[in-house]
TrEMBL record:
SUPFAM superfamilies documented for this protein: Pentein (SSF55909)
Protein name from the UniProt record: Amidinotransferase
Domain of life: Bacteria
InterPro entries: Amdntrnsf_FN0238
Amino acid sequence: MLFQYIQSPAAAVMIRPHHFISNPETAADNAFQSIRANDAAENIAAQARVEFDQAIQKMADVGITVHVFDDFGEYDTPDSVFPNNWFSTHQGGRVAMYPMYSPSRRRERRHDVMEMLKQHYRVQEIVDYSGLEYDHLFLEGTGVMVFDHIERVAYVGQSKRADPVILERFCTSFGYEPMAFDTADQNGTPVYHTNVMMAIGLEYAMICLDLIADPVRRTEVEMRLRHSGRDVIELSLAQIAEFAGNALEMTGKSGRVLVLSERALKSLTAEQIAVIKKSAELLPLQIPTIELAGGSVRCMIAGVHLTPR
């Protein structure tokens, strides 16, 4: 089923962190970050590495191909475990590289990842937007853009990490329709990344509509998702706080699986789980230490939407 692989990739790039910390540069606008008091930095880093290795093993066990790269911390890259922000891959052999808001995150871009993709997949073109950082323009990949690859729509919560000029340029080049909206949490703070509030599978979409600030736009987004033929699973603000929206549907050896954290799964209701299981199995990963950095499973996975060689 071709559509399945277009929306739900069977392979991923993931980065094993060796010096993981909760990045102080990104804490100002990432309400999901936290600090574990009274725990030495080396202990936190070691726990994050164990969680990472257990996660990739569980993904491999269900038949997902995981290309793992190590980050030994030579370049001070505390968020390197979240590679989905600095590049994305697309049908037709195209790869995009993105301008990052935090200076430390700009050091995450890696030549060896691009070379691996060229070696194992049919890469026709790499479009590099990263130079726009010098103009203070940012677009943090599939953190700020949640793609409906079937309908060719990019859902984007507007923030300083998602510049509308680059968004329009990207969507024109890659063939997506931008559907942007303002967001606000209980404190009126914009959501830093769209992928913490919504996820799109082949037959369902999970979204916290309450985070869309404008009621008219909220209805438009909901209707657009429903008109795609998907079941819309409405997430609460409390579930978003548990990373329920930060999930990714992938394809394993026995069909589609929704990869999410154990914390996220525990927050879902029986009715929500039943809707998901009509289309995909659930694959919970235990990553409580990694979640201290303000991202969860979706942020860890850079899906590969390229044709293998």
